[in-house]
Design goal:
CATH superfamily: Glycoside hydrolase family 3 C-terminal domain
Number of helices: 8
Number of domains: 1
Distance between the termini: 49 Å
Largest sheet: 7 strands, mixed
Structural class: alpha/beta
Radius of gyration: 20 Å
Order of helices and strands: HHEEHEHEHEHEEHEHE
Helix content: 10-25%
CATH class: Alpha Beta
CATH architecture: 3-Layer(aba) Sandwich
Number of strands: 9
Strand content: 15-25%
CATH topology: Rossmann fold
Length: 245
């Protein structure tokens, strides 16, 4: 049999059969759901109550596709927070679900020589959410101000945060994000995967592949060969992950 070095060309007909096949897509969807980590579930905020004909459940969303969240399979009455002023639209909602992501969109503008992306060298150690607003190379979506506004309107205990941990971001005290009823760690999962978790359709089983510190200084002073942080600097240890059972 020829190996890939002797015959590096892909059979297009075979590739068409594999890529996007229902069987492989099903496995990929399952892998996404298994990867989501339930970091925090205060007072059993999750799973969210199941809507019924007698009692609807309104869900305020930000940072996600409202059409996906509003799909009939979950039954929630979805209010799209990305479409208006959060201070005017969130108050009447039963719960809020906010997907939080951070990019370095402003880095290349500030420094065109930064070919491979990432933060500016002078801002590499800015990993606490409360400190990102004052930087030029970190961009938080939605903004921390909007997240805090929603938590104030809906109630922190009824707010679910789904954070894309592209880096070991710090849920510091000043951000107020630790007060959320539920916190999920994701690594590129789809909105549908997140909805399956928050609705209880899928029981979370992911475990943290890294440790998360409770302050940025702990990250800066960490030895590179250490798997985590001292106990008093640790918010969630390596391998942490809750479930509904």
């Amino acid at each position: 049999m020829l190996n890939s070095y002797e015959n590096p060309y892909v059979d297009p007909d075979h590739a068409d059969q594999l890529i996007g096949s229902p069987e492989l897509q099903e496995k990929a969807d399952l892998a996404q759901r298994k990867s989501i980590v339930l970091l925090q579930n205060q007072n059993k905020a999750l799973p969210l109550p199941t809507p019924t004909a007698e009692k609807s459940v309104s869900l305020y969303t930000m940072g996600m596709d409202a059409e996906v969240a509003g799909d009939g399979q979950w039954g929630f009455t979805v209010i799209d927070g990305d479409a208006g002023d959060v201070r005017l639209t969130a108050e009447s909602s039963d719960y809020a679900l906010i997907r939080v992501s951070v990019s370095n969109a402003g880095a290349l503008e500030a420094n065109p020589d930064l070919y491979f992306g990432g933060a500016l060298p002078s801002e590499l150690d800015v990993l606490a959410f409360s400190e990102m607003a004052g930087t030029s190379s970190w961009e938080m979506t939605p903004s921390l101000a909007d997240i805090q506004a929603v938590m104030n309107e809906v109630g922190a205990e009824k707010t679910i945060l789904s954070v894309y941990f592209r880096y070991p971001y710090v849920l510091d005290d000043a951000s107020g994000m630790k007060n959320a009823g539920g916190i999920l760690a994701t690594y590129g999962a789809t909105d549908a995967a997140v909805m399956d978790i928050v609705s209880g359709k899928f029981n979370p089983q992911g475990k943290l592949p890294i440790a998360l510190a409770n302050n940025a200084d702990a990250i800066k002073s960490q030895d590179s060969d250490e798997p985590g942080y001292p106990e008093n600097d640790t918010l969630f240890p390596f391998g942490h992950g809750l479930s509904y059972e």
